[in-house]
Amino acid sequence: MDFPSVRGQLLRNEALAPFTWFRVGGPADALFLPADEQDLAEFLRALPEHIPVAVLGVGSNVIVRDGGVEGVVVRLPPRPFGQIQIEGTKVIAGAGALDSAAARAAAKAGIAGLEFFAGIPGTIGGALTMNAGCYGRETKDVLVSARGVDRRGEKRTFANADFGFTYRKNAVPGQIFWIEAVFQGEPSTADEVSARMAEITARREAAQPIREKTGGSTFKNPPDHSAWKLVDEAGMRGARRGGAQVSEKHANFLINTGEATAADIEGLGEDVRTAVKAKAGVELDWEIKRLGRP
């Protein structure tokens, strides 16, 4: 498979497991780490339309399947895509920046409103894609605008209203490779914001298996239900398949106990969905993205 020339790195048959929290999965046909926004735009513009392109952030909410990923996987390097700037009470964050880094930068500047990002283990690009949120706040509540590049390599800008945000998704048409987002906070003090962030972090560490090889919340909360309660009531807390297990600490988390395959983890998730459907009559939808060939 021929690919356009790049100024960044284009790695053939590159293992993706080390880039994911589950530490499972096969290689990408090609892994592209663009040098900058222009490098990404030019690559996408020159790449034949039939070649699929996917994005991988820090791999906190994805299962890369064992057969690997067809086409190109784009991963934004921290430089230059992880930069964060403060302008008044606005936080301007690159799509490759960690959500928690944006929260910390806001706290240091005495900007309130972005504390919830401290509890989300992903990147700003992922937050834009899935309207990431926790503890009563979501990306839509603080986003002003965002810039990205579409599959044809055209640079585009979106206001908050253009996203059509709903629970864990947006309605932006087509495939957008996010570059940067602008968030609006409120004036506060560094001490007050840091205290609220510390509370969120403590709650997360107490309730979630964040020290394990996991992928964050596995299923979306159905209307009027909590996914973890449905999983628990279906008797699936602690359930296993191969090297994968439903967390004993939080029933909406799957973990790799050490030797799991991607098929083990995804299969266990389907076992959970089947059990919940049989017990409660509720269809759980995956929140974790599944990427690649079985």
Short description:
The protein is of the alpha+beta class.
Commentary on this structure:
The structure is a single chain. This protein is an alpha+beta fold and 294 residues long. The chain has helices spanning 37-46, 78-81, 99-108, 124-130, 160-163, 190-207, 227-233, 262-280; strands at residues 9-15, 27-33, 53-55, 62-64, 69-74, 84-87, 90-94, 111-112, 133-134, 137-138, 143-150, 155-159, 176-184, 186-187, 213-214, 240-241, 244-246, 254-256, 289-291. The protein folds into three domains: 9-77, Uridine Diphospho-n-acetylenolpyruvylglucosamine Reductase, domain 2 (2-Layer Sandwich); 79-206, Uridine Diphospho-n-acetylenolpyruvylglucosamine Reductase, domain 3, CATH 3.30.465.10; 213-291, Uridine Diphospho-n-acetylenolpyruvylglucosamine Reductase, domain 1 (Alpha-Beta Complex), CATH 3.90.78.10. Strand 9 and strand 10 (137-138) form a beta hairpin. Helix 3 (99-108) runs antiparallel to helix 6 (190-207). The radius of gyration is 19 Å and the shape is globular. 43% of the residues are buried.
